[in-house]
Specification:
The two termini are 36 Å apart. Mean pLDDT is 87; it is low at 1-16. The protein has helices spanning 2-10, 19-25, 41-48; strands spanning 58-62, 68-73, 78-89, 107-123, 126-135, 140-155, 176-183, 224-233, 237-246, 260-263, 267-278, 281-297, 307-321, 325-340, 353-367, 371-382, 404-416, 419-430, 450-458. Helices cover 5% and strands 48% of the residues. It has one domain (2-458): Beta Barrel (Porin). Strands 3-4-5-6-7-8-9-11-12-13-14-15-16-17-18-19 form a 16-stranded antiparallel barrel. Strands 1-2 form a two-stranded antiparallel ribbon. β4 (107-123) and β5 (126-135) form a beta hairpin. With 459 residues, it is mainly beta.
């Protein structure tokens, strides 16, 4: 049970904003972020343009024909992040070794997480966000979110030419950016804060119980490698198509039955979004999704039938950025259809097909980018499956249902824009299918309510 709780906690959404970008651009963090890591419209443009805007003296090389062969920042775009945390659940967890005993409740992680980043320009039109993370709970380093991208404009219209009539070419009156992204987590390449990789909550306890069910698009990060192309038209319309394949780290290689939940073949990912701006406001609406074939593994051969999942999502984001006040509203809904052609014969699931629905909504208010309050709601519902969601103390479901529901309240204080103090409370009204005795061992959903305090420093 202890190992499961640890892995569930480590799957909490990552969230990072790094000073490398500020050093490279010569701009304050507030140019790209409201309250980090949430992006502003300019921050979204910066990321889509491959992280390459710079204000640093370059080290350059040229051939005799004046062709540029080298363009490096004189200061490497390196950063470091440290997180220190305290977690306290409403009711202590059972001891992992001694029957009837309770584990210590109230756990300090020093550190909770330490990350090292290369974040910024690599060469002209080529940049990256690369992260290596140490987990205090797991006590090891591992590759984290990584996005390497190349981008350039096919056309850039003059302001007075946009929408002009009589032009010989559509491209002459429109801004068209095209890019290529190489990454290890579906949605990590995205620029809105509605999607799983960068969605609220931006931090979470890594040691408190988490609901058993999550959509595949939110759970295959760092076990996949994806290559995709995207376009950004008139700073409003975004369209992307990517493909993902298995890229698991650690364990036996080539992968064998010791690995679990391994992507098979090509898993297509799509994204379309439209952002509209007026005055100090921006509004985005969009859709995204993935079609993934997965081999369960975990002691079963990585061959034969697969479990096939199709995740289809919609999202919306509203942002108002004033001189003193910032308002943000975030919402997303993911519907998943699963056909369990591998899990059922292997005794891992009861139903040949299951569905899972995930909904999240968040309201955020920031004052002078120093004081921030957020209120989030989340809900997961799905098909009852007694084998897939089996009964077990704390982590299981007595009813075989994946249904969970709750809220998150968070208060942040930023004495400096690279330092954040967070107090977060997560409350559950339903957990793994029930409100009381949800696990068949007498634990209630509210027993998993958690107070999480964190100090987050980036430098």
């Amino acid at each position: 049970m202890g190992a499961f709780l640890l892995l569930a906690g480590l799957a909490a959404p990552p969230a990072h904003a790094v000073p490398s970008f500020a050093r490279q651009t010569g701009m304050a963090c507030s140019a790209c972020h409201t309250v980090f890591p949430e992006l502003t419209p300019f921050g979204r443009e910066f990321k889509l343009n491959a992280y390459v805007i710079d204000n640093i003296r370059q080290i350059k090389g040229e051939t005799m024909e004046r062709r540029e062969t080298l363009a490096l920042n004189s200061i490497p775009p390196l950063s470091m992040m440290v997180q220190i945390s305290y977690s306290h659940t409403s009711k202590a967890l059972p001891d992992s070794q001694v029957s009837g005993a309770l584990a210590k409740d109230g756990d300090v992680l020093f550190p909770d997480q330490v990350s090292f980043f290369y974040a910024g320009k690599i060469a002209n039109d080529l940049g990256a966000f690369m992260q290596l993370t140490y987990s205090g709970a797991a006590d090891h380093f591992g590759i984290d979110n990584t996005d390497i991208r190349y981008a350039r404009y096919l056309s850039q219209a003059e302001p007075d030419e946009k929408g002009a009539s009589g032009s010989n070419s559509w491209f002459s009156t429109h801004d068209v950016l095209v890019g290529i992204t190489l990454n290890n987590n579906p949605t990590v390449q995205d620029v809105w804060n509605t999607i799983p990789a960068w969605g609220f909550p931006y931090v979470a306890s890594s040691i408190s119980p988490s609901p058993a069910a999550s959509s595949k698009i939110a759970s295959i990060g760092q076990t996949a490698a994806g290559l995709g192309v995207y376009t950004w038209i008139d700073h409003s319309l975004y369209v992307e198509f990517s493909g993902y394949a298995a890229a698991q780290t650690g364990g036996v290689h080539p992968l064998d039955s010791q690995a679990a939940n391994v992507l098979r073949g090509f898993s297509p990912y799509w994204r379309a979004a439209y952002e509209y701006h007026w005055d100090r406001n921006s509004l985005e609406v969009g859709t995204y999704g993935i079609n993934a074939s997965i081999l369960p593994g975990g002691g079963h051969p990585l061959s034969g039938p697969t479990d096939r999942f199709t995740d289809t999502a919609i999202d919306a984001q509203y942002q108002y950025i004033g001189e003193e006040s910032i308002f943000t509203v975030l919402a997303t809904y993911i519907h998943e259809n699963g056909h369990l052609d591998a899990s059922v014969p292997q005794g891992l699931a009861s139903n040949s097909s299951d569905t899972l629905n995930t909904a999240k909504a968040t309201f955020e208010y920031a004052y002078r980018r120093m004081i921030n309050a957020s209120l989030g709601y989340f809900s997961t519902t799905g098909t009852t499956d007694p084998l897939l969601y089996a009964q077990a103390p704390v982590t299981g479901s007595a009813t075989g249902a994946p249904n969970s529901r709750g809220y998150i309240f968070e208060f942040d204080y930023l004495p400096f824009l690279n330092t954040k103090l967070t107090a977060q409370y997560t409350g559950y009204s339903k957990f793994n299918g029930g409100s009381t005795n949800y696990d068949g061992s007498g634990r209630s959903a509210s027993d998993n309510n958690v107070l999480y305090l964190q100090l987050w420093i980036s430098f």
